[in-house]
Design brief:
The complex is a heterodimer. Helices cover 62% and strands 6% of the residues of chain A. Chain B has a four-stranded mixed beta sheet. In chain B, strand 5 and strand 6 form a beta hairpin. Chain B is globular and about 45 Å long. Classes of the chains: A mainly alpha, B alpha+beta. The interface between A and B is medium-sized, with 29 and 36 residues.
């Protein structure tokens, strides 16, 4: 850390000074490249140690490469391709030359979020999907998307810190960002939020260095990034996050332009329009005439969303009590507390040391970018922690700024090095250690449910309400073996040109998503989804036709086992909880669908991890 | 206070006694507290193997029910409001209106349904059918005990409900087996409901997207309205598999996770509107398509 109060706009008056600065940037720049190479190394390590295992899967993020890949390949979508709440693998017809894919359909991911209020789209999956087309079946493709966004995130965080306080500050900010996946749990960060974080941070970096909107190419880039960020957000909470994250540097930069001389103001107008115009236009197009989106947020906060996650709050006299409990749990989350407290301490140092000069206001904008969404988001959504991920880059930069403000060089270097070591150790340790660490903590502190919930919430897969659905030591092996069994069966079925359709039932969607991903890698023309997450609950009618599946797998603690009707409610316990929490109509539809499945002539086939069911006569 | 005023007050206090017995079989649909006495008898409960849409839990078996009375209509929001002082019904769903005094009450827990039945018994000076209703929600429905000798208002058992819905027939729905004719008898998920569900709808038009006023359509052969459709109706029983052998006045198991609901609704799947379909729901949860119908013993 150089400790200089270098301002972002300060002209480098002498060539000697410029050479000195370039020299000072060399080492941190090189270290930044090392960080990025480290991300690439993680991809390679996963290729070696997690064969057929999707790296850091979570939620339905890994269904999107499949969607996009198939769209690009020209598979005709079935209607509805997407329904409110989610998009599905609705591309179930092989490419048909001459009749498929209009330009509009091929670019659907750019303009159609797929639902009235769910704004997901597969930007995150784009690099992975393109790479998969080039190298079919390669697991590297799966990790490419997150790595690209992670690299962008590190570069943007570096630029932000460097612009505010210098290259060493930028490097420290980027290093802290690099540690986030480890600190927050692999599963929590690798869906839409990595591109969201990267884009939001890049916007801030571009805005803060755009010299009052005088550099129009940067303003245009900000506008384009703003649109991407808005479209990347998983849903309304994410969109609000993006807006808030962008707002602070945007307001700063706009104010910086408008309080200047008249000539500066006039020059700033086109840049301002370039930066804000696309974002405002796409936001207006999304919200105007779409009041239901707001209903979704208020309803979600009120009952439904909270009901489904940690427990059933219907027993509370008022749902607000359940909400308060949920919020309290959020506040107890250890990683969040760690980052928040650290950032606050560093922010105090920064505020005490800073004068309201240009550099100060700039870093104040970064501070606002970090803390405003943090404070605003927590009450919004049960998944607030997930979305807070997007403002972590700026939190990291704020932390670095606070360290840079310390008077003592030794203290600066020592604290900065310690923060970097913690972040890197967490990142490296997150590759394999979290399961063992979580298990140890759970055994050691069994009577601290809030802490355990915190740990469980950061687990990537197979944990529901503090209980592991698959034994930790075996989870990846079991999933891989299960997927391998399905792939083997799929390949042994008669090939009549139609894709093999695999139905994976699971009490927890992540299990099914992970296995589906592995099945798809091994048997690209299989169709595989879990009806428990949006499938039967919001499924298009054709997905509820029980006789269209060739292989039925039920994912449970032993990997695969037959689904039984022995439960008094015709569901295994967790499944009943899942489907009983909301509309009974969907509950009925799911139940009838499962009944029909069991009326099919399935032929049991024993595999090392359990039993698979194959349609009789298919083998 | 003058003696005349005192007499008037006494008369006013005694007035409810003159209405202690509910009106029986007047022929008017009413608000949910008008009873149709049924003679009891034996009927085939469940559905035969091979019946279209049959669920795996509809094992057909003979059931005998004792004479009882069941409300001509579902409980209306007006009646609920009069007794409970507040209407818990959801105002609308997917743009379909669900709020109105003559519309069926919905968004009520099973626990609230038994509390309502007791409150109505109190109004009519009848013995309360249930004890333990105060702690129903916190006990997740397990604290409620049914005093079967009481003549107060109560929920029908699952067997009573199906007996009443079938009305001596073996039709798929209450009143008909023809999906195209069902809208004459029932407010179901028809082609014009437009609720956003992705499952198939009935090929008819009942004239409503949401709920209809109780007793608006054609009753079944027993003169009961909306035994199919409009809103689901809570039954007394915990959900469990049917017994194999014949049963007499079954009331379900002593404990369970979910209570039975019957009858289908304005937005449900087609299979769910069949009189043999067995729905269930947690007794401490609510749903905007789930209401109730009253019954009584010894009328």
């Amino acid at each position: 850390m150089d400790g200089t109060s270098q301002t972002g706009n300060a002209p480098h008056s002498t060539s000697r000074g410029a050479r000195g600065l370039r020299g000072a940037e060399k080492l941190p720049g090189a270290l930044l490249m090392l960080l990025i190479l480290g991300e690439a190394g993680i991809s390679l390590a996963q290729e070696q140690t997690r064969a057929h295992y999707p790296p850091e899967t979570h939620h339905d993020g890994f269904t999107r490469p499949l969607l996009l890949e198939r769209a690009i390949q020209g598979w005709a979508p079935v209607e509805p391709t997407c329904v409110p709440g989610n998009c599905y693998s609705g591309y179930d017809a092989p490419p048909s030359p001459g009749t498929h894919r209009s330009v509009l359909e091929a670019t659907r991911w750019l303009w159609d979020s797929g639902g009235k209020y769910d704004n997901s789209y597969p930007l995150f999956a784009l690099p992975a999907a393109l790479c998969m087309m080039a190298f079919p079946g390669s697991i590297v493709a799966a990790s490419l998307g997150p790595r690209i966004w992670m690299a962008l995130l590190l570069l943007a965080a570096y630029a932000l810190g460097k612009r505010a306080r210098g290259p060493w500050t930028g490097l420290l900010g980027a290093t802290v960002c690099a540690g986030m996946p480890g600190l927050f749990g692999l599963g929590m960060i690798h869906q839409d939020h990595v591109p969201l974080a990267a884009i939001a941070t890049a916007i801030a970096a571009l805005l803060l260095s755009s010299e009052g909107y005088s550099r129009r190419w940067r303003c245009a880039a900000v506008g384009a990034l703003g649109v991407l960020a808005f479209r990347t957000a998983e849903n309304i909470s994410g969109m609000i996050l993006v807006s808030l994250t962008v707002a602070a540097p945007f307001v700063y930069a706009a104010g910086h332009a408008l309080i200047g001389p008249k000539a500066t103001r006039l020059r700033a107008v086109p840049g301002l329009m370039l930066a804000a115009g696309p974002f405002v236009a796409i936001a207006a197009a999304t919200w105007i005439g779409n009041e239901q989106a707001l209903d979704y947020m208020t309803n979600g906060v009120g009952s439904g969303v909270i009901d489904g996650w940690f427990g059933n709050y219907a027993v509370f006299p008022f749902h607000q009590l359940g909400y308060i409990e949920e919020l309290w749990r959020d506040l107890l989350r250890l990683p969040l507390a760690f980052f928040t407290l650290g950032s606050v301490v560093c922010s105090v140092v920064f505020v005490l040391r800073s004068r309201l000069n240009a550099a100060g206001t700039r870093t104040l904008a970064v501070l606002g970018m970090s803390l405003v969404p943090l404070l605003a988001l927590s009450p919004l959504h049960r998944k607030a922690l997930w979305y807070i991920v997007a403002c972590l880059p700026s939190l990291g930069v704020v932390t670095a700024l606070g360290v840079a403000q310390l008077r003592s060089t030794r203290l600066r270097v020592g604290l900065g090095a310690a923060a970097a070591c913690v972040a890197l150790a967490a990142r490296i340790g997150a590759l394999e250690a979290p399961s063992a660490a979580r298990d140890w903590l759970a055994r050691t502190f069994p009577k601290v449910p809030a802490v355990y919930r915190t740990l469980a919430a950061t687990a990537p897969i197979n944990v529901l309400d503090g209980r592991r659905l698959i034994p930790p030591m075996n989870e990846r092996r079991v999933e891989a073996a299960s997927a391998a069994s399905i792939i083997e069966l799929a390949r042994s079925l008669p090939d009549d040109g139609a894709p093999v359709r695999v139905l994976v039932l699971s009490t927890y969607v992540q299990d099914a998503v992970a296995i589906c991903w592995m099945v798809h890698v091994g048997a690209p023309y299989s169709t595989c989804f879990s009806p428990m997450w949006g499938g039967a609950l919001w499924a298009p009618p054709q997905l509820l036709e029980a006789d269209r599946y060739d292989i039925l797998a039920y994912v449970a603690e032993d990997g695969l086992r037959p689904m039984t009707l022995e439960s008094d409610a015709a569901f295994p316990g967790d499944l009943a909880l899942t489907v009983a929490m909301d509309q009974g109509d969907r509950q009925d539809a799911t139940r009838i669908f499962l009944d029909r499945l069991h009326e099919q002539p399935w032929q049991a086939r024993t595999v090392p991890t359990g039993t698979l069911y194959v349609r009789s006569g298919a083998l | 206070m003058s003696s005349i005023s005192l007499i008037l007050c006494v008369l006013a206090a005694l007035t409810p006694l003159t209405h202690a017995e509910p009106v029986i079989d007047t022929g008017a649909p009413g608000l949910g507290d008008e009873l149709v006495p049924l003679p009891g008898g034996t009927f085939p409960m469940g559905s035969a193997v091979g019946t279209p849409g049959r669920g795996v839990d509809e094992h057909r078996h003979a059931v005998t029910v004792a004479p009882f009375a069941i409300a001509r209509t579902e409980v209306s929001q007006q009646l609920w409001l009069e007794i409970m002082g507040a209407n818990p019904s959801t105002p609308d769903f997917a743009g379909a209106p669900l709020l109105g005094p003559s519309l069926p009450v919905q968004t009520i827990q099973w626990c609230e349904a038994v509390q309502f039945a007791n409150a109505l018994s109190n109004r009519d000076h009848l013995d309360a059918a249930y004890t333990g209703v105060e702690t129903c929600t916190s006990s997740r429905g397990k604290s409620v005990v049914w005093n079967r000798s009481a003549k107060g208002w109560r929920l029908p058992t699952e067997a009573e409900w199906e007996y009443a819905a079938r009305a001596g027939t073996d039709l798929a729905y209450a009143g008909t087996s023809d999906p195209a004719q069902l809208c004459t008898y029932a407010n179901v998920y028809d082609a014009k409901a437009l609720l956003g569900w992705t499952w198939p709808s009935f090929p008819c038009d009942d004239g409503a997207r949401g709920t209809l006023a109780v007793g608006s359509l054609t009753p079944n052969a027993y003169g009961l309205y909306d035994m199919t459709g409009n809103v689901w109706e809570w039954a007394w029983d915990w959900y469990a598999a049917y017994a194999d052998e014949a049963q007499t006045d079954p009331i379900g198991p002593a404990d369970g996770m979910v209570r039975v609901r019957r009858g289908g609704s304005f937005g449900g799947v087609m299979e769910g509107d069949r009189v043999a379909f067995r729905g269930w729901f947690r007794p401490y949860m609510t749903w905007n398509a789930l209401g109730m119908r009253l019954a009584r013993s010894g009328v």
